[in-house]
TrEMBL record:
Name assigned to this protein: MAM and LDL-receptor class A domain-containing protein 1
Gene3D superfamilies: 2.60.120.200
UniProt domain MAM: residue ranges: 103-324, 324-491, 501-683, 693-883
Record GO cellular component, one term: membrane
One Pfam family hit: MAM
Organism this protein belongs to: Trichonephila inaurata madagascariensis
Domain of life from the UniProt record: Eukaryota
Length: 898
């Protein structure tokens, strides 16, 4: 029964759904509780009913005579809604046939038709801690995604929970319309009371609740095959923390967490699936958890949303969800034994030996439950060491390069004769052997362990559990609770990640090492640590706790660091396989104090370095991100490719993670959960994509080359050479005619690097006291023609010196001129120092469109007799752009000449 303004509803429950049965009179509602139940029993017969009174759920059972009947008011509570949600005690069925699962729910289309179906929320939950109905048209007003999942438009319905909370709101309250007297049951109305006025109502303090519950109707036992619950979810915004699914037993009032996710796909709908079995009456509860109220992210807008909730029976012919999931309690769920191995996997409930195998399945381990099963290999007679049993999955569809899945499962490997458990990837129809993607050998103790591995494939594939018999008969190996979730995951346990590069950093650094000081490749180190001080993130990413480990970029404790100092974290040596791989990891880049001049935290970069030999140790930059990105762990992804042709490495290689401090150094740069999977993935985030031809000139000129014609050699004067002092000045003058990297002893005065505000880290030319103008040229690598009309060349430049005739020009050089003609140079950008104050050089931004329909290169050409230019942070963006500064435009516009 639900009250609102003195009214009440009796919520009728048939075997498949809730409906509103009747508005109960005020007289009945004011009747004492014990008599009220009797009156309701006499009024409504042969039905099941759920009485909801003041936000507390009571069981009211009115059923045919062949059912045992109860009418109870139980006070057991569920955390955190101890005062809101009370245990529902269901009737005991004499029949053993499980009830049908609830009907699917898409939450309707259009405001008048939005509906929560059979799902409920605690009625007394504070207004700011309620799931509510919404749709895209209302998202800018009351929150939620801009479109639902079912129809992908702004009219489709969903449920959402707004996660932000602002304490001590100091703003005028706009008078609201009178509160609606219409009942609002279980969030069935999409708009708040007083809709049309202000959403600010300080008449009562709703309190601060950090989670919200969305509750299924009461569910009966699932049967041995179990249920598949599928749904789509979104979690977006800084204040959203995690989404959890609980199962609540209606007899014992105990809860078990079945599923959890701590990050969403940045505002896009993601599919969630849960296969489970339960031999009793239960509820499924979605719990949306926000950041804590003392977290600085809590005031920021965010939300959780759910759509397309579907319960299906596992094993049913029309099952189109939970593909490959299995609890092994009602069979193998589509997994089959290989006919070409030595023996078979079996189903079991408990080992027959004290010395090997599990005493119960994974879900009932350490729980007093009498249900549950698993799959295992029996190593007893007639098995011999080395015998293999393979369990084959159904055929999975191709994942694509950017959509790997994470297979999760439980393992039990107890006994002194334990052999090996492997997960292999098989591509049907290919002659290539199965490839091992996960492997553990030897005993791991008498307990269940969680395991996981990323899987991706460009074609359809199968997964194979391969159990290999060990040295004696005490070698039973068991698996249980196989499931799949979208996205990557680091191989777990760490011992299964041999030479893979995957690492959670919980046990050690998995072969990732700092550069040796003797190599002089960097200035300081990365450190594996947990959150024991303010020098790192508050929690790691793997566990989400202060006890979890990650890699943190340190500064040199011996001396203050200048901007541009760096540390290299180097992977183990990987063999070339001919397959393109993708590196996925999590990063944390947070600057606690932003300088008035702008962010200056530093940079995080990923490089691939070929082994010395064929490619001569060549380094290719794959991914880079600069400065502050937020106070949270974020996901990153990059393909591992070499050179401008972006090909898979053809020789052994290593990955280098480079952390560079900027001028500020008041913040955190950290890494966690490194993993690799097959596929030529796209870079993520998109802005971190390394671009061919870009260069920040920190330690090298990348693929840019000085193309200035060599000056004439120094001449002897008569029969005597010039003096040493004269020769030195002459050599410096000749060097000034070329583009070169800034150094501590040779650089323009009072000019810091643009990237990190370091003393060095850019290229420049300076020409002084020359009788005629000199023209140093900096040449880019050659670029192939592309389908895009143009790219935008972006760079930073700084003029200096005394000469008013000093200039910087940009040319596009045509590499495929008509036959018989030379390369054509087209001037597309030019800036002179005239009217500039060059007494104290400063960085200015430049950009210009470059046509790309034919092969080309870019050349920066200087011109000076008494001055120079510095250049930094050259890169390219897709598409045309306006020339900057405007006075650098060349007439007629370059687009008219291409």
């Amino acid at each position: 029964m639900v009250t609102n303004s003195g009214r009440a509803f009796l919520v009728h429950r048939d075997p498949t759904k809730f409906t509103f049965l009747q508005l109960v009179s005020r007289t009945l509602w004011n009747t004492p509780a014990t008599k009220r139940l009797d009156k309701l029993k006499n009024t409504y017969t042969n039905c099941n009913a759920l009485l909801v009174e003041g936000g507390i759920f009571h069981n009211l059972t009115m059923v045919p005579a062949n059912y045992k009947q109860y009418a109870t008011r139980d006070t057991s509570s569920i955390s955190p809604y101890q005062h809101l949600l009370k245990r529902i005690k269901r009737q005991e069925f004499d029949a053993d046939v499980p009830e049908e699962p609830p009907d699917p729910c898409d939450f309707g289309v259009g405001a008048p038709n939005l509906d929560m179906c059979t799902w409920l929320i605690p009625v007394n939950a504070p207004p700011r801690s309620r799931w509510r109905l919404g749709m895209g048209e209302l998202s800018a007003w009351i929150g939620g995604p801009r479109a639902d999942h079912t129809t992908s438009d702004r009219q489709g319905g969903y449920v959402f929970y707004e996660t932000s909370y602002q304490e001590d709101v100091h703003q005028p309250v706009i008078p609201t319309l009178p509160k609606s007297t219409h009942p609002m049951v279980g969030g069935a109305r999409p708009l708040p009371q007083g809709a049309g006025g202000s959403s600010v109502d300080l008449s009562e303090d709703p309190g601060v609740v950090d989670s919200a519950w969305f509750i299924s109707r009461n569910l009966s036992r699932t049967g041995p095959m179990g249920y598949c619950l599928s749904f789509f979810y979104i979690m977006e915004g800084l204040s959203a923390d995690r989404l959890i699914i609980h199962l609540r037993d209606m007899e014992t009032a105990e809860n078990a967490s079945l599923w959890e996710v701590r990050e969403g796909q940045e505002g896009s709908w993601t599919k969630g699936e849960l296969a489970y079995t339960y031999d009793g009456f239960h509820l499924i509860i979605f719990e949306a958890v926000t950041k804590s109220t003392n977290d600085p992210a809590r005031p920021f807008r965010g939300h959780f949303a759910l759509d397309d909730m579907v319960f299906q029976k596992m094993g049913s012919p029309d099952l189109d969800n939970c593909f490959g999931h299995c609890t092994f309690e009602g069979g193998f769920c589509g997994w089959t034994n290989d006919v070409e191995d030595d023996f078979d996997w079996e189903l079991g409930r408990s080992s027959k030996s004290f010395l090997t195998g599990p005493s119960r399945d994974y879900s009932s381990y350490n729980r007093d439950e009498q249900t549950g099963g698993y799959s295992f290999i029996d190593a007893s007679f007639p098995r011999r060491p080395g015998d293999k049993a393979r369990l084959l999955s159904p055929n999975f569809l191709a994942t694509g390069d950017n959509n790997p899945v994470c297979m999760k499962f439980a393992t039990h490997m107890f006994g002194n004769g334990i052999g090996t458990l492997r997960v292999l990837k098989r591509v049907p129809g290919e002659e290539a052997p199965d490839r091992v993607i996960w492997e553990v050998s030897g005993e791991s103790g008498n307990k269940w362990y969680r395991a996981q591995v990323s899987v991706s494939s460009a074609t359809s594939y199968q997964l194979v559990f391969e159990g290999i018999v060990g040295t004696n008969s005490l070698g039973n190996i068991a698996i249980d609770s196989v499931s799949f979730v979208p996205g990557t995951c680091t191989i777990t346990p760490q011992t299964a990640a041999k030479n893979s590069g995957d690492c959670t950093f919980e046990e050690d650094s998995c072969g990732w090492t700092n550069a040796l000081p003797v190599d002089a490749l960097d200035d300081f180190d990365w450190a594996r640590q947990y959150s024991y001080s303010v020098t790192g993130p508050a929690t790691d990413h793997t566990k989400g706790t202060k006890e979890g480990y990650y890699m943190n970029l340190l500064s040199n404790p011996q001396a203050p660091q200048r901007g541009g100092t760096r540390a290299w974290l180097i992977s183990p040596l990987f063999s070339a396989t001919g397959r393109t791989r993708c590196l996925s990891f999590y990063y944390f880049m947070y600057e606690r104090s932003i300088d008035p001049a702008g962010p200056s935290l530093g940079s995080l970069r990923v490089h691939v370095k070929s082994a010395a030999g064929e490619a001569g140790g060549k380094i290719t930059t794959l991914w880079r991100l600069h400065n502050h990105q937020g106070q949270r762990w974020q996901t990153a992804r990059t393909p591992v490719v070499m050179g401008s042709e972006r090909a898979a490495p053809s020789s052994p290689y290593q990955i280098i993670i480079e952390g560079i401090w900027g001028d500020g150094r008041v913040g955190v740069i950290a890494l966690d959960d490194m993993s690799f999977f097959d596929g030529d993935c796209s870079s993520h985030p998109l802005k971190a994509t390394a671009v061919i031809g870009e260069c920040s000139f920190d330690r090298s000129m990348c693929d840019w080359k000085n193309n200035t014609e060599a000056p004439p050699p120094l001449q002897e004067l008569g029969s005597h050479r010039t003096t040493t002092k004269f020769t030195k000045h002459a050599q410096e003058a000749q060097e000034g005619l070329t583009w070169r990297l800034a150094s501590i002893i040779s650089r323009p005065a009072n000019l810091q690097d643009h990237t990190f505000r370091a003393p060095t880290g850019y290229v420049f030319f300076d020409i002084f006291n020359q009788a005629t103008a000199q023209n140093p040229v900096l040449r880019s690598p050659d670029f192939a023609a592309s389908q895009n009309d143009a790219l935008c060349l972006s760079f930073w430049f700084a003029p200096f010196g005394r000469g008013e005739a000093t200039a910087l020009s940009v040319f596009r050089v045509e590499l495929t001129p008509p036959e018989g003609e030379k390369e054509q140079r087209l001037l597309i950008w030019k800036m002179a120092t005239k009217k500039f104050d060059t007494s104290r050089p400063d960085w200015m931004y430049g950009q210009v469109s470059v046509a790309t329909l034919t092969a080309y290169r870019v050349e920066f050409e200087g011109e000076a007799t008494d001055g120079g230019f510095a250049l930094d942070d050259v890169t390219f963006y897709d598409g045309n752009c306006q020339t900057r500064p405007e006075r650098a435009a060349v007439e007629p516009p370059p687009s008219e000449k291409f």
